[in-house]
Design a protein that fits this description.
This protein is α+β, with helices and mostly antiparallel strands. It contains 15 helices and 16 strands. It binds histidyl-adenosine monophosphate.
């Protein structure tokens, strides 16, 4: 093979694309009912947009970004996530988004240089929502609820939702100190990554997957015991609202996120088809990001789900059924005269709204029937000289195997009567 796709970057073939389309259609329908509108941002941005928002010391910024320099020497980055670009666009086009609270959603490819393995790739796709301009804890609950209902709608209602509060810039440093003093006494026993995190991003130690470190952290202070009264009150209201909406959740006081912009509520959604390590979706509140990126301060909350992981979970579940038929009909021609007439008949049926195709390469009837099957057509419409003379087609139902003669003049009506 002369060329192959790049490691960690996959083609999505037609046999799978239909699943993506079904999931995306469900997302669009649901988000629309909650008042979200779609936004499409470019796949690359100024590098500084991401270093400022995601955080200089995070794994994404330190190790995973695809950076490039353009012809004028400007540093650009393929977007590793969707929130920062959406906030950049919100600030830039605020006049075009007049609502007090802007609700936006997006879908598209993201890029992170991670070690590729099942459910983790270098180009992956997210569907995400952002609610910008709302401080009420009801928005946090709504965001979690939308994520929950989305998974329910696509057939993965058994996702586990974990929530936590990481406090605000006032109370979080106090918690950081408490955590440091717990860890300091055994610091030499922690893994090298955690030793580094100890100084640069202490909360990320809680995310360590090394069994020895998990054991050392068993008695560590919990963030929810250290957050300020405002953050604690906010978190209680989020939980109350989730209870009244009937959204199931688990409290995970060790849940911290790999992006620095979060304040207060954070959440992750997991699905058992993916194993313990990877989340199928995640999000949280990020009240300081608009100001950090040069806009007016605005409370905001959102989440993103990973499409590749969703498809893996759906496949493990066989949760969505493939459309039985791709096409309504496939024209089969016997002889040159019928072929010529069929080209025109197919065109008029397509124009009338039916899905159809035919073979232009003058193959045998058998080969044409094989094509009809490969295209997953519902009917093979067969015409030879006899049919032409009689003004009919022989319509073969490719599932049931039975045949019927149908007048060409009433073919469209007949197809409609069959549900095409
Ligand atoms: P995140 O946790 O970095 O959050 O990513 C969200 C989801 O994207 C993950 O739960 C996962 O399903 C998927 N994902 C992330 N990295 C990969 C990868 N390398 N391969 C496959 N899937 C992946 C964010 O990106 C935030 N912007 C979410 C957010 C929106 N927070 C507020 N608003």
């Amino acid at each position: 093979m002369l060329f192959q796709s790049i490691k960690g970057v996959s083609d999505i073939l037609p046999g799978e694309v239909w699943m993506w389309q079904a999931v995306e259609a469900d997302a669009r329908g649901l988000f629309g009912r909650f008042g979200f509108r779609e936004i499409r941002t470019p796949i690359f941005e100024q590098t500084e947009l991401f270093t400022r928002s995601i955080g200089q010391t995070t794994d994404i910024v330190k190790k995973e970004m695809y950076n490039l320099v353009d012809k004028k020497g400007r540093s650009l980055t393929l977007r590793p996530e969707g929130t920062a670009p959406v906030i950049r666009a919100y600030i830039e086009h605020k006049g075009a988004l007049p609502a007090q609270v802007s609700k936006l959603y997006y879908t598209g490819p993201m890029f992170r240089y991670e070690r590729p393995q099942g459910g983790r790739s270098r180009q992956f796709h997210q569907i995400g929502t952002e609610i910008i301009g709302g401080n009420s804890p009801c928005y946090d609950a709504e965001s979690i609820n939308v994520a929950y209902l989305f998974f329910k709608e696509i057939g993965l209602g058994d996702v586990v939702i974990e929530i936590n509060s990481v406090g605000c810039p006032e109370c979080r440093p106090r918690y950081g100190e408490a955590l440091q003093s717990h860890i300091r006494k055994d610091l030499d026993k922690y893994c090298p990554d955690c030793k580094e995190r100890f100084d640069r991003n202490i909360l990320r130690v809680l995310d360590c997957k090394v069994p020895g470190d998990i054991a050392l952290l068993a008695g560590a202070p919990l963030v929810t015991d250290h957050i300020c009264e405002h953050c604690s009150d906010h978190f209680s209201k989020v939980k109350d609202t989730l209870d009244s909406l009937g959204v199931p959740y688990r409290l995970n006081p060790k849940l911290v996120r790999g992006l620095d912009y979060y304040t207060r509520t954070v959440f992750e959604l997991r699905h058992n088809a993916l194993g313990a390590l990877d989340a199928i979706g995640a999000g949280g509140r990020y009240d300081n990001l608009t100001a950090e990126l040069g806009g007016e301060p605005k409370g905001a909350v959102g989440f993103a789900v990973g499409m590749e992981r969703i498809i893996l979970a759906l496949k493990a579940r066989s949760a969505i059924a493939e459309k039985e038929f791709n096409l309504d009909l496939f024209m089969v021609s016997i002889g040159d005269a019928a072929f010529k007439e069929n080209v025109a008949l197919l065109n008029s049926l397509r124009t009338a709204g039916f899905g159809g195709d035919m073979d232009y390469e003058a193959k045998s009837i058998k080969a044409q029937m094989r094509q009809a099957d490969a295209h997953k057509a519902r009917f093979a419409l067969i015409r030879g000289d006899d049919e032409l003379k009689a003004g009919i087609v022989t319509a073969k139902d490719l599932k049931a195997g039975c045949e019927e003669k149908v007048n060409v003049g009433s073919l469209a009506e007949w197809l409609k009567s069959k549900g095409c």
